[in-house]
Amino acid sequence: MGAYVSNLRSVPSEWASRAYVDAAGHAEKYRRSVAEPEAFWREESACVDWIKPWTKLSDSSFEETDFGIQWFADGTLNVSANCLDRHLTERGDTIAIIWEGDDPSQQRTLTYRDLHQEVCRFANALKMLGTTKGDRVTIYMPMIPEAAVAMLACSRIGAIHSVVFGGFSPEALAGRIQDCDSKLVVTADAGMRGGKQVPLKANVDQALKHCPSVAAVLTVRHVGIDLPMAEGRDHWWHNLRERALPECTPEEMAAEDPLFILYTSGSTGKPKGVLHTTGGYLVWAAMTHHYVFDYRPGEVYWCAADIGWITGHSYVVYGPLANGATQVMFEGVPSYPDHSRFWQIVDRHQVNIFYGAPTALRALMREGDEWVQKTSRSSLRLLGSVGEPINPEAWEWYWRVVGEERCPIVDTWWQTETGAAMITGMPGAVAMKPGSASLPMFGVVPQLVDGDGKVLDDTAEGNLCITQSWPGQMRTVWGDHKRFFQTYFTTYPGKYFTGDGCRRDEDGYYWITGRVDDVINVSGHRMGTAEVESALVAHAKVAEAAVVGMPHEIKGQGIYAYVTLNAGEAASDKVRQELVHWVRHEIGPIATPDVIHFAPALPKTRSGKIMRRILRKIAEGDTSNLGDISTLADPLVVDGLIATKGD
Ligand code: WT7
């Protein structure tokens, strides 16, 4: 994160007077959330309708001896009933979802009543296909209302969904289906992005060659293409829908029953199935959505994230729908048909609250202000940012050009593991600093530590930990509870380690500096360097590979791969293209290497460990200060790398 400038922007007075919390309210709520959690959560957990109210708040410990995380454990509820049924009397005819297709001529709206009926039908269809409570259902869908319908239908009957982003390859999809033994896959014939078809059902067919656990595939007709349907296995949603009743009693779930699995990349090994449970997650998603976006009935909210990521789970599906919001759901991309698309959608649907990622802003910023300025955007009153640190330049552009210095920006730091926003602005309460995610959310206790685990107080920069559990915390890694403990609670015993570096300034504001582990953040999407490496070494010509992040103007970070070819293989542009294609095929387009550096050898210590620090420096182009290289088995390797860079 470049130069650090404090640059405080005060809370606009109209916000201070109208928001759910002002500065004093924020401070008081935060204090109570930590000092009197029982009373605080008694109040805040009422944002959710409980079937049986909870009596025991939390039973959580990050210590090895009594490790475990539980919230509201004896309470019961149903998530879909909270997102749908409870709105029907007052808001049945209110629009829940305004869908905007990739093609700007395509739109659909669903009221809460429509959505309720669709979810009930879908839930009944899931039952017809033999799905019961606790079963895993993999959802591989485009951004269409049926994606949310499928998720809510699972939650209605107590099935555990695992949404896999539609941009992942059949191989990546297969791995995620196998890991959680899904019996059913929900997909669409195809999705549309930027005028191009994404062959979802064909990818599923490909993946299922390696997935014996899957007994049924439920396909939504969206694009309308002809498809081979496997007899006995494949079902069209529109056929089942005709037979499915629009009523389905929601299953009473315990607060700690699993709600969903979402796979995410870590610094080692294959992606982890992050498990979130029912009560704590819903309270956390709904509460944070309420305060961070200050949503009021009648307003139009739009989170531009895909449901394949946690942002789509918490801030397209569960948070806004639990709060009865009217929202835009967008299938396409910001650059199609042209670079005005986001702002045209804002005008067309009179969007008041817009939540997006810095990578999209940087890409649009580069195209020039005209694309924004030719739209009105007068409906906008709040802007949000998520997924990666927002550089001050992009922040200023968002503030000045998109929001015309009228709309506060809430920068929200969080992770797949944290369920929802953890360190964040709040429009009526927290003065803004461009580039800072601001202050901890109620109930969140951040701590900075140095490499040895020493706690750093006051103004400091270190590794970001969270010392106490919060309701939306992940509960386990699917099928590997040990890995959950080892990944997050052993680096700094007794604390949850986020993997992020962070600075705290003199006003107590937090500035996320980026990952300090072997995870890279490409366009706000997480990628494990180990995953890309294992894809590369699976190629017949590759002997060894090491992957690091590199600065990238639009994506935030790009993927820089050092590759040593097998003896007898000659480096060439053709091989380079072959490897790029191979990685896209193995993982998906988001893992596309930006640079393949054919390296004669990799810098290793005498014990054979690759020194990534040096590889990062060379990738950044900063070779003046490589630090101590005397522990390398062969220090000359470094000269070889510098000499071959850019070849
Ligand atoms: C990683 C988590 C937040 C949901 C989407 C990404 C980075 C996320 C911010 C932010 C600085 C951020 C962190 C974090 N990150 N939001 N506002 N400022 N960095 O979820 O895929 O689990 O990635 O994204 O490095 O650890 P994810």
UniProtKB/TrEMBL annotation:
CDD domains: ACS. One of its GO terms (molecular function) is acetate-CoA ligase activity. The keyword ATP-binding applies. One of its GO terms (cellular component) is cytosol. Belongs to the ATP-dependent AMP-binding enzyme family. This is Acetyl-coenzyme A synthetase. The modification N6-acetyllysine is found at K609. It comes from Sphingobium algorifonticola. Residues 85-469 form the AMP-dependent synthetase/ligase domain. Acetylated. Deacetylation by the SIR2-homolog deacetylase activates the enzyme. Keywords: Acetylation, ATP-binding, Ligase, Magnesium, Metal-binding, Nucleotide-binding. Catalyzes the conversion of acetate into acetyl-CoA (AcCoA), an essential intermediate at the junction of anabolic and catabolic pathways. AcsA undergoes a two-step reaction. In the first half reaction, AcsA combines acetate with ATP to form acetyl-adenylate (AcAMP) intermediate. In the second half reaction, it can then transfer the acetyl group from AcAMP to the sulfhydryl group of CoA, forming the product AcCoA. CoA binds at R193, G194, G195, K196, T311, S523, R584. Residues 28-83 form the Acetyl-coenzyme A synthetase N-terminal domain. Its cofactor is Mg(2+).
